[in-house]
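Quick note —
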Amino acid sequence: MTNELQFDFHQPALNDEIRAASRIKIMKAGEELLHENEQVHVVPMLTKGLLGVYRTDEDGRELLVYYIKPGESCIMSFLAGINHDTSKVKAIAEEDSEILILPVDRVSEWVRKYPEWSTFIFKLYHKRFEELLNVVNSIAFQKMDERIWQHLMKKSEVAGSRELQLTHQQLADEVGSSREVVSRLLKQMEKSGIVLLGRNKISLV
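Predicted structure written out below.
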């Protein structure tokens, strides 16, 4: 299937191969793209929208690991694919999204064939590694109210808005806590004047 690329690797041969090998997938907000513990055969490249990558613990609680923005891919699906492994994370469309689906065997081939693609993958790996360290530091060293505030700021930056359509349960899932704890801390933040709480909405003041 031939696609119009929303990005350019400044290597015409690589761009042509991506067009020829890929297909476009349209997803609605809330749909799951990658599933935990399933074999990975394709790698997603986001062209429009936003994807959230989550890890689930034994109790079913989710923790947001990182966001995938347009022009980015999921390095964890890439690593699982080239190692013929199952996915250790799941990816969910945070909003209506358009994704370029790349066959994992071709992705591996391009690493060996095109320096431009290798550079892209290694830069992405470096970025995700730093984000993962931030998550670990947050869990290990920050109080829950600090984690919630930092998470809200990050979501605001990604969304380009200080008004977030977000329930207390969704926020609790994303920071790996309970709804009761998150609701109590949000009410304290509202009393402090740094957030405004509405129905399924949190606004940063």
